[in-house]
User: Fold AEC family transporter from Oribacterium sinus.
Amino acid sequence: MGLALIEKIIALFLMLFAGFALVKKDILKKEDSQTLSKLCLYLISPCVLFHAFTVEVTPERQKAFFLCGVLALGIQGFFTLFIFCLDKILPMTVVEKTAVIYSNCGNIIIPIVAYALGEDYLIYITAYIGVYNILLWTHGISLFKKQQKKMGREGSCLEENFRDSEEASLFKKLSGFLKNPNILAIIFGFLCFSFRIDLPRPLGQAIKDIGGMIGPVSMMVTGMVLAKMPMENFFKNKRLFFVTFLRMVFFPLCLLFFFKLGNIAGRLPMGKEIFLVTYLSAIAPSGTSVNQFAIIYQQDAEYASCINIFTTLVAILTMPLFVYLYSWLI
Assistant:
């Protein structure tokens, strides 16, 4: 499993360097990353979310899916609460907070699990991604909007569903939330999964193929931002190492302790393998969605990209290590 993880992460890194090269050779501009970010957030990501629900339904799988969702909610709740408390002692920027709380549980973990465990395990990632996206598109995006408002910037986000306003009614906020394509994908995917609804084959294939672009597009966006970033940026901000420690070492260790203490794997047949998917989702590098939100809301996209790239680089070592510890301890 460790070797498969390393191979997949290296493959994703090669995709990152493709975006880097396109900008360095002036084929694309750094600013083009904003268009690709919107393409990823509003089209490719919803397709990934929906397609992951298209598996054979069994009572055992439904129970495992539900437990994975509950566990994901608890994990994300712990991350959010910890950072909220830490921010009172050691103030953090919006990019740092979201980078620590929200992992790259889709872009990296989906291809890793499909490659190493098989597509049948993707449904359990979806449980995590569902919880993750609901929180990201409510709590996460609200952090960026709040910071943008404080700084007095108009920004360049054109998505009307998430326009923030002091006077906005609860109905309008709820309506905007439900119109977001990522949330709709989760809702309709879950309904199809629950009621065993099959899509016409051409439509299902189109959704699958579009979703398959998430790894390349997300990593190329990161590479495009990196292309115009001085390499010394990785070392001039010492907080980068602190953020990386929280995301890639501290949280994975905390979760190992929790999984062991709560005997999580013993709650289901094949629970060790099923909850490994949840664990991988939680210990992944900083999410590329943070980069994309930082670009759209003009909140230090270069620093966000630094965190994403550095945590992904560190993940080449930490993820196989923690998978080994999980296999040994759980």
